[in-house]
Amino acid sequence: xxxxxxxxxxxxxDAVATGLRREAMAxxxxxxxxxxxxxxxxxxxxxxxxxxxxxxxxxxxxxRRIVDxxxxxxxxxxxxxxxxxxxxxxxxxxxxxxxxKPFAFAELTARVRALGRRxxxxxxxVLERAGIKLDPNRRExxxxxxxxxxxxxxxxxxxxxxxxxxxxxxxxxxxxxAWDENTDPFTNVVRVTVMTLRRKLGEPAVIHTVPGAGYxx
Length: 217
Hints:
Protein name: Response regulator transcription factor
Structural class: alpha/beta
Order of helices and strands: EHEHEHEHEHEEEEHHHEE
Number of strands: 11
Domain Response regulatory: 2-116
Radius of gyration: 18 Å
Helix content: 40-55%
Domain OmpR/PhoB-type: 124-217
Largest sheet: 5 strands, parallel
Distance between the termini: 18 Å
Keywords: DNA-binding, Phosphoprotein
DNA-binding region: 124-217
């Protein structure tokens, strides 16, 4: 899942981003509304965690821009105000969910995951294919009943491939969904991660390379 965190309190923004990355999400971070507009114009995000009271460009205007673009991106709006009227106003702008500060990180994560599920075609909560069971919420992976321990990036790549339901997923698509914008697209990070993932999943291999196209399960 690709997430953009937009929050002018830098310590909070960085803490949220770090926590979401530990949950196997690819996360970009910006600290003002102008930078957020630049990102949503060039990147496809599943979820934008958007503070409402932003400098330079207000969060309301960022939300309007996302809605005007007709993107499938879901918006989780944050605010220091807990007034019902503010929540209603934010939702009327086009936000998909609203979370007042201070918040529990576990709740934020659950809401981001719930919104992320709404950006794609409905799928069962536990993904199953080729003897593999992957639970995105619990971050658990089993093959033929045996649990497999994966690093966050390995889990993220496997989830993207599982959601492909047998279609070919390109290296570019994996970079977009499993890594943030700071990753050099010319590195072999995707190939190395897929190789490690294959080894951990064991034999027979279930991740197949399609020459010149990508990978599929």
